[in-house]
Amino acid sequence: HNALHAAIAGVSTLALxxxxxxxLAAQSITVGHTTSDSSHYSEGIDxxxxxxxxxxxxxxxxxxxxxxxxxxxxxxxxxxQIGTIDVVVTSTGPLGNFVPETYVLDLPFLFEDYxxxxxxxxxxxxxxxxxxxGNHDLVGLAWTENGFRHLTNSQRDVQxxxxxxxxxxRTMENEMHMAAFREMDVHPTPMAFPELFTALQxxxxxxxxxxxxxxxxxxxxxxxxxxxxxGHVYSPAIMLASPIMWDGLSDExxxxxxxxxxxxxxxxxxxxxxLETEGVEELKEKGMTVVExxxxxxxxxxxxxxxxxFTDEYxxxxxxxxxxxx
Length: 326
Ligand code: PAF
What we know:
Structural class: alpha/beta
Bound molecules: pantoate
Mean pLDDT: 94
Oligomer: single chain
Number of strands: 9
Distance between the termini: 78 Å
Shape: globular
């Protein structure tokens, strides 16, 4: 009888201990992004979650909301500011609307290749820009990556800037991108990404531009049959946290988040690199016509005047620093 009591007491003590461990482990971090759960962002969030779990001994779990379930990128950034979302992975597309200092990164043909872009973002300039997030009710955890953007459309093969004239192209809600497309006599139509697939399907726009991973894992090849490897702009991405969540963390916990975010960025970047070649082959297999032989200098020349939209407003200091950093 006594033994039974002791056993029951033992079991309930264990249960209690498990519950309190459970309570500790229960800080769930809501992470939102707009690409699919097979995308480069999702790959990075898996690595972020694994690292955070490892560093915190299970204190934090990550709840991923892909495919724009929590809204488009602009809406999610607002969500961070008011604390309805904890962490967001977003391109810099709408970020300049919140943190204008980041517009410099959105200039077309600014970065020559992945190495240069990654090096700038991982260096002093990248850190300075991450720190600026703090002035705008945001916390910059790490720069990650979307990739070089390429043009797709449903009308014709685009090999030169002239071929693109008159096309109606969905762009991100980004002044610098829109200015560049206007210089090419393309009609830029800014739109949040979650609306894009339907807009392409219904012909509201003729085309769009995004990195290979997005075109592939977002199934854009289902509604676009021409791809031109223009690589007209490097699209950085950033992992941002809500200051409301952040302020509740200890310094040690903050360190875990930063380290985990870097691990996430690394995983994302390696997928972007892999798909830059493999993904193009896959898109061909899926029926896209790919224009690979592109004289980028023609496009670069066409969009060059759009740089003034930036320098008139923000000067050229940051631009020069980036250019001199390679
Ligand atoms: O086109 C966009 O809006 C962005 O590139 C995307 C797909 C949301 C990824 O950040």
